[in-house]
Amino acid sequence: MTEPVKNTLLFAVVGGLILLTGFTQSWNAAILILNMGLISAIMALGVNLQWGFAGLFNVGVMGFVALGGLAVVLVSTPTTPGAWSAGGFGIVLALLLGAATVVATVLVAQKMPKGRVRTLSIIAILIVGFFIYRAVLDPNTAAVEAIEPAVAGNLGGLNLPVLLAWPAGGLLAAGAAWLIGKTALGLRSDYLAIATLGIAEIIIAILKNEDWLARGVKNVYGIPRPAPVVGYEVDLQNDPSFVARAEWLGLDTVTASTLAVKLGYSLLFLIVLLVLLWMAQKALNSPWGRMMRAIRDNEVAAEAMGKDVTRRHLQIFVLGSAICGIAGAMMTTLDGQLTPSAYQPLRFTFLVWVMVIVGGSGNNFGAVLGAFLIWFLWVQVEPIGLWLMSLITAGLPDGSALKAHLIESAAHMRLLTMGLILLIVLRFSPRGLIPEK
Amino acid sequence: MDFLNALVALSNFVLVPAIAYGSQLALGALGVTLIYGILRFSNFAHGDTMAFGAMIAVLVTWGLQAAGVSFGPLPTALLALPFAILGCIVLVLVTDRMVYRFYREQKAKPVILVIVSMGVMFIMNGLVRFIIGPDDQRFSDGERFLISAREFKAMTGLNEGLAIKTSQGITVIMAVVAVVLLFWFLNKTRTGKSMRAYSDNEDLALLSGINPERVVMITWIIVAALATTAGVLYGLDKSFKPFVYFQLLLPIFASAIVGGLGSPVGAIAGGFIIAFSEVTITYAWKKVLTYLAPENLEPSGLVQFLSTDYKFAVSFVILLIVLLFKPTGLFKGKAV
Predict the structure, then answer these.
(1) Cis-peptide, bond into residue A113, ω within 30° of zero
(2) Contact of A68 with A325, CB cutoff 8 Å
């Protein structure tokens, strides 16, 4: 079997699995899998860029995804009336002061001669800067958070179309990645891993605690949909031409409207995925892509050839994180709400890693395939596990504690299965389903 | 008097909790650092190994409690600890045989082993959730306090109380015992010396006839014992919740790296540095400062530098500072 045939078959199999879901469970479920699969594929492309192209070990995917979600809130939700005059500008001023403190510290660290004077002045700048920052920030955040805390209590957004939030999510993630990369790249791979793991937790902590930003754990609801591609079910049900089309298809109007809304998302996501995939393919086969792989395979040799390894690493780290940010913004748009406590590292960082490794790191199509396959399994393992458990426990008497426990625990089969899949692929097919060429 | 009150408040809210937390982190970081020294990779599954060991301890404790066995004023979990360690040893040895050994024989790159440990992390996490569920479990019993705040106030006549939980006392004692045993083992016994030799220079160690598989096996056994102890102590002190152990990964790694990966002394120092910074920076200093400051200069706010939810940020910032200025850590770790 030639390579293209095999790959097409693999994609066909995954597509078939999703279609099977549609026929056996419901089309709603199938399109849900498809939509999150598309988003996961974009995340996997980002990780593949960093790991597959450049060998950078980023386990902070969750953080960048969450930043994308934050961007959606900041760009597309309506501005809270009075929030900016109450304290918004004060908060911005405080943040600028905080940034100035850091910049001053870095300048002092670079410009002053080494010695006790430098250490003391750095400490002094940091302490004074911190207290000024808190003194400006605290009253302003309190003022913003006091505005209608039940429905708002945050600054709100710019009230722009939600589609603009997607590139904005990428930019926000890229900015954060640049800051992290500036400090943590150039360190050893394990250190970068721990650093990114930490930064992701911090980003989630900020989202959870800074109520003025995105309402913290009170969540932001009612994020607008990307009209006109994705409408609202109620509008569709009241639209006579839509009702007529639904009847022609033999669907009842309510089901048809939910399907139409979801398919609208699928269309948008597919366009983004195809554009990014095309760009990633171009990058992979360009001189730039070859240089990246050369750096990955032998840093010393690449450096001897005059390649600036640290700069290139920074570049690809920022690019990959930006893609994760875009995916995060798309996901929050799909959900229609931002729920900071829903961001779990196992789901948003390590699962994406499983997708990339299983699909084939270094190969963009592999990453996309892995994303769809693993997402499908992630969703379907639960019902399969439940079914399996009822089969196993069929012989046990009803009401036995063991039976109840086993059936209840079936939900946790997911993690176990993902771990097994990852280990099996790493052992027997370490290059993944579609290996790098 | 005010000064004494301030001191007591400081001990009660900062020193005692930080010492206990530091001991738990140190035990965890020792495990990470040993794996790094001998097997040469960062074990992402360490938090979940701790959770697994602690889970067995919880289950055995429940069994003992149901059978009416108790340890008097001490928590029953201490009786369960040896069983938990055994269970955890079995788990890690099986994992090593089935998973890690293959890559060791292939001489795979360390980063591959890290990814493999991610897979192991998933499986252990799944196992723990599968067996005991993702919820909070309480398993501490016995006396709750060595000294309760009320007793202390009555004893000394101070305004401030000092409470020391039994779990905190046990944590410190157990940590000291574990560390003394570990260092005795590493420095005085033949096996321990062979482990250090293997860690320092693999080729020379192999040349002098040290059996690498034996070294690796003993490392896993020690790591399982340390991880279980740390997990049980943390569970007794706070509560047992699988996800929390996963989150401990960050401060534990920070401790190990700050001390210098591969250096046991560094891991202990790192654990206490991280714990003390976390607690001091997230503690609201108002009470202590009110006692210390002159009459009318008392602070009006809480004087809390960061809210407790940002404790990860503290370990992270310390980690970054150390990495930027002293990449091999405070105690000269190794760099692979």
Answers:
(1) no
(2) yes
Distances (CA, A) of B329 to A115, B47, B195, B267: 21, 21, 21, 10
Range from A71-85, A178-192, B46-60, B165-179 carrying the lowest mean pLDDT: A178-192
Number of structural domains found in chain B: 1
What contacts A28, CB < 8 A, 6 or more positions away?
A: A255, A258, A259, A262
d(CA B226, CA A402): 31
All residues of chain B having their beta carbon less than 8 Å from the beta carbon of residue A193 are 42, 114
Mutation site for B-interface testing, chosen from A130, A203, A422 by largest number of B Cβ within 10 Å:
A422
Cβ atoms A88, A71 nearer than 8 A: no
Partner residues linked to B240 by β-bridges? B137
Q: What is the pLDDT of residues B203-224, one digit of tens each?
A: 898 898 899 999 999 999 999 9
Lowest average pLDDT, out of A424-428, B157-161, B165-169, B197-201, goes to B157-161
Q: Does B277 touch chain A (CB under 8 A)?
A: no
Over range A38-62, report the average pLDDT.
Answer: 94
Whichever domain contains B269, its CATH number is 1.10.3470
Q: Which of 3.30.70, 1.25.40, 1.10.3470, 1.10.150 would CATH assign to domain A3-81+147-428? A: 1.10.3470
Question: With contact defined as beta carbons under 8 Å apart, do A72 and A326 qualify?
Answer: no
**Residue A240 C-alpha, separation from nearest chain B C-alpha, in angstroms:** 49
Separation CA A115–CA A128 (nearest Å): 20
For residue A273, what are its two tokens?
A: 């995925």
Task: Look up the domain containing B159 and give its range.
Answer: 2-325
In chain B, count of helices (H) and strands (E)? Answer: 15, 2
Contacts of A415 in chain B (CB under 8 A): 122-123, 125-126, 129
Among candidates B236, B294, B293, B290, which has minimal Cα distance to B23? B236
